[in-house]
Amino acid sequence: IWAASSRDGGDAVRVTRSYARDAQVAWLPDSKRIVFVSERDDVSHLFLYDFTTNKETQLTNATDADTAPRVAPDGKSIAFVRDGKELRVLDLESKAERSLATGHLTRSPRGLAWSPDSRWVAYIGLSGASFRNVYAVPAAGGASRAVTSIPNGSANNISWSPDGTYLVYNTNQRTEESQTVRVDLILRTPR
User: Fold this and answer.
1) What Å distances lie between residue 3 and 6, 39, 145, CA to CA?
2) CA-CA 20 to 30 A from 126: which of 5, 18, 68, 77?
3) What is the DSSP letter of 178?
4) Residues 54-111: pLDDT tens digits?
5) Counting Cβ atoms within 10 Å, is residue 76 exposed (0-12), middle (13-18) or buried (19+)?
6) Cβ-contact 37, 69 below 8 angstroms
């Protein structure tokens, strides 16, 4: 992983020095730290790099692969997927992890999104009918709720609206072109 100033330009500096594959970089809101995935023990784990101290810290060390890190807008937590089967959240201050949901989940960071208030995590999961749909779960824990029920073969790129009232994501069926779908999370009277 390399980094360069977006404001000043110039030469990039090397951040990681591992021979392992490093990927899925996400900035924390303070712009002083990044979280990323590295396969240093033949299993991917989450790492944190702090540019102010030039220090790297391993955040997870489970026997199953950790992927798809997404940083909460408040910078206090990181959502990620363990082994493609479990949505987890890591509290950066306490380093405590908790499980939010289980199932067949996407391993891509594009399949997870935090609400603007850091209270919900939206994710793409496989429904009982083998369709990929969007679910939302409280970040503090609780039951997941399906927010879509579209019979699609692929879904990705979840984003919340700035006010948290709707989600948008891309979906397609087999060989069809991808479509962008808006899902209102607050019921509105039809016009």
Assistant:
1) 9, 20, 38
2) 77
3) P
4) 999 999 999 999 999 999 999 999 999 999 899 999 999 999 999 999 988 877 778 8
5) middle
6) yes
